[in-house]
Predict the 3D structure of the following.
Amino acid sequence: MGCVSVKVACAVGVRLKNSFGECEMQETNYWDEFEYSKLKLLLNKEKVSSILDVRNGVKKMDERFPISVELHLTDNCNLNCEWCTDKELRQNRAVLNLKVIKKLFREFWHHGTGVTLEGGGEPALHPDFMEVVDAGMNAGIDMGLITNGTVDISGCIDKLKWVRVSLDSSTCEEYKKEKGVDCFERVLTNLEKMCKARKVEETFIGVGYVLTTRNQSSLMELVKRLENIGVDYIYLRPVEEAGDITPSLESLLDLRKKLAELTADTRIKYMLAISDRVVDKNAGLPCIAHSLTSVIHANGEVALCEKRRTDGIILGNVYENSFEDIWISPFRERISQKLLRPECQSGCSACRVTGFNMIFEQLEKVHSKHFI
């Protein structure tokens, strides 16, 4: 993998060129689980082989189940984020049925698929949330959770592989402006409860932070406070589809420098997803990596991707068919072939799958693959 390509695929490490034009990594306290997420492909060799078969025209779609699925439990939310990208979903006020969830868990266990509990709304507001977590654990599913942190879920923390709390503010005043309610201190209190309730290092606990031009007044102080609470990492990314409050690339690079300096000797780690700011339309590549993951909405719809804002593709509905039937359907095969055409990426906003597509593209161009 070339120098520039590595820089794009790895969204945070501070990479420099020496006098020979070679990449060097400046030591930073970034979060390895994100920085090296692409290496997880090595743990899923059958999936990679299946995707490359599609890329090479050996078959028309990757029929293997996704490595992970984003499962929206409910569209209901108790916040009112001004820049929320799921406002349309929230109008549905849908709640995914517990029986359907348990059926999905059985399918996912059979295929080794992990599940991220999240939502167009707040997943912990699902009326059977604790039962959902218990069902996943009993089914042997690896689960993660993305939550706004307003609900105390410390009682089930050890049943989850990781939890990321969307904070998006560094002060009470910023929180009220960004989220529309006054819950800043409640969220931090719940974070502290989670950190105290977990068994040591068995669950990653992190904070998600959508960066705007108006929520960074006390960001460095917040990172210090999260360190004291026991939070493992903070994951920062620029706001989507809100150009008037999107930070500039220069400000993001400056922030990365400050975070590296601040966390040089701390336990808490960080990631700043700058590539999400500068790469869109899937870099003009065929989207063969879309099958690494999938999205199931609270109304049962299986969506191809959450980033295709202008060309949303619904593959089917789990209230009507099993996920497997939807995943291997002739319709999905046609969609998979459509996505091989680079011009079909015009409806895509910045997407983390792009980095995987870049890796698959580069793998196909390796001339000396039989040499190390």
